[in-house]
Write a structure and sequence with these properties.
22 strands, single chain, alpha/beta, OB fold (Dihydrolipoamide Acetyltransferase, E2P), 3 domains, about 450 residues, 7-stranded mixed beta sheet, 8-stranded mixed beta sheet, binds S-adenosylmethionine
Length: about 450
């Protein structure tokens, strides 16, 4: 008999779901238990129940799994991040690789390719070069930190987040202390639609470059009189190289808003990836793990095998961080990216590195490719098209146009194996065979996994 709502049961966890929860079974009925790892014997209470599966709350670990390890982080019980930190790192890598392989097979029907073993980190902590902290108030005290597990409103004061460097944690502390000293209040968007939001402080985004830059972007509901004093105090306390204030006047709970207003420092930070010096604008995308980004780019360039006699494309190129190293080995690289600011940075980065054989166009990949296909009619096809889309993957039309460029190779960099699998199946129908797959652990202690996949044009 399948369990009912509220039932408490004991079960063994067999595997992990793509979202990170443990999966156990009662006959054919599937139970998802957040916080449980494969091999655990747990007691759990059935919550949200559907026809064939249910989510259950972990009540007790009756017998811990051999791959369970003590949580190293002091905030582990409260904070919503790092849901896999109780899983031994070798087991994390094994499950991530398995999830990539299973997604490709079950969603895309893709098999018979060469699998390159997942690349992991030697020290899988303190790797993030970007942290987004949120402000809140708890019993009248200002709090700056990360979301409490399962809550959008409550914030845990993460004094030592182990995914962030001690310098980024120091910046969080410096900003929290300075805001408290100035008596600034957290923004409260108010519960009712007709109530007026109150307070000022919304988010703090901290980004760090390996050569020493530390940029702080403070998201607020409106410009405020104490900005200069706050920036000066924070600069002294944590040696920030840039401090900006960004107004987000909307109710949406996101670190987004108007143009950043610089209080000091340049509007970017420096990073060096794959042998190229990059200036990264405050709001542009960059992989959040610089060490593994180097590994990812090495694999992507190796799979791409650019040809010095032929063109290459880099779709979703961001600030040109992959286009530029590729340009050193190709005849010419064409980068396409929707964010204007990122395209301006890509052009600037090309100049910084004296790379003249790359051009960058701002716009939606789907639309720009339509024009490109007309412009290139009669030209020889590129040797390679590299794509690195957001989590949702590529829309069918954009993918069909990328395939219509008729490159010998299409290298797909993906942060979501489920959409890679769907797009991979579409590519097969468009004449591309999946030849090689390399998972990369860009996000240790979480269930996320990055993958580089090589598709080869048939016929
Ligand atoms: C995963 S990031 C990859 C960026 C870059 N390749 C890198 O390694 O840093 C995806 C990029 O796609 C861009 N993007 C999102 N939707 C797009 C679209 N429809 N057309 C063009 N670019 C898009 C985003 O702005 C972002 O820079």
């Amino acid at each position: 008999m399948p369990p009912r709502n509220g039932d408490t049961l004991e079960l063994t966890i067999d595997t992990l779901a793509y979202g990170g929860q443990g999966i156990g079974r009662v006959d054919d009925f599937v139970v998802f238990v957040r916080g449980a790892v494969p091999g655990d014997r747990v007691r759990a209470q059935i919550g949200r129940r559907k026809q064939r599966h249910a989510e259950a709350r972990l009540l007790e670990i009756v017998e811990p799994s051999p791959v369970r390890v003590p949580a190293p982080c002091g905030h582990a019980g409260d904070c919503g991040g790092c849901e896999w930190q109780t899983l031994a790192y070798a087991a994390q890598l094994e499950f991530k690789q398995r999830q990539v392989v299973e997604s490709l097979e079950h969603i895309g029907g893709l098999r018979d390719y060469e699998l390159v073993s997942i690349a992991g980190m030697e020290h899988p902590w303190r790797y993030r070069n970007k942290m987004e902290f949120s402000f809140a108030e708890s019993d009248g005290r200002l709090v700056l930190g990360l979301h409490r597990r399962g809550s959008w409103r409550k914030i845990v004061e993460t004094t030592d987040c182990r995914l962030a460097s001690t310098r980024i944690n120091g910046a969080r502390q410096a900003v929290a202390d300075a805001c408290r000293a100035l008596g600034l209040r957290a923004y409260d968007r108010a519960a009712g639609r007709h109530e007026t939001p109150s307070g000022l402080l919304r988010h703090l985004v901290v980004r760090e470059g390996r050569a020493g830059d530390l940029v702080l972007n403070l998201f607020v509901s409106a410009r405020f009189a104490e900005e200069g004093e706050l920036a000066a105090g924070v600069a002294d306390a944590c040696a920030a190289t840039t401090f900006a204030v960004t107004v987000n006047a909307s109710r949406a709970d996101a670190a987004a808003g108007d143009e950043p207003h610089l209080l000091f420092g340049p509007p970017f930070f420096g990073e060096r990836l794959a042998g190229v010096d990059l200036a990264v604008p405050l709001t542009a995308f960059l992989q959040t793990n610089a060490e593994m980004c180097d590994a990812l780019y090495r694999l992507a360039l190796d799979f791409a095998a650019p040809d010095p006699q032929r063109d290459a494309f880099d779709l979703y190129c961001g600030i040109g961080s992959l286009s530029l190293p590729m340009a050193r080995e190709a005849a010419h690289v064409h980068g396409i990216e929707i964010q204007e600011e990122a395209i301006a940075a890509a052009r600037d980065n090309a100049r910084r590195n004296a790379i003249a054989n790359a051009d960058f166009r701002a716009g939606d990949v789907r639309r720009v490719l339509k024009e490109t296909l007309v412009d290139r009619e009669g030209s020889p096809p590129p040797a390679v098209v590299l794509v690195d889309p957001p989590r949702a993957g590529m829309a069918r039309k954009a993918l069909a146009r990328a395939a219509a460029l008729a490159a010998d190779r299409l290298v797909y960099v993906s942060c979501n194996p489920t959409t890679l699998a769907g797009n991979g199946a579409e590519l097969r129908d468009l004449g591309y065979r999946l030849a090689r797959v390399a998972p990369v652990d860009m996000f240790p202690q979480t269930h996320h996994v990055e993958t580089v996949a090589l598709f080869v044009r048939e016929g």
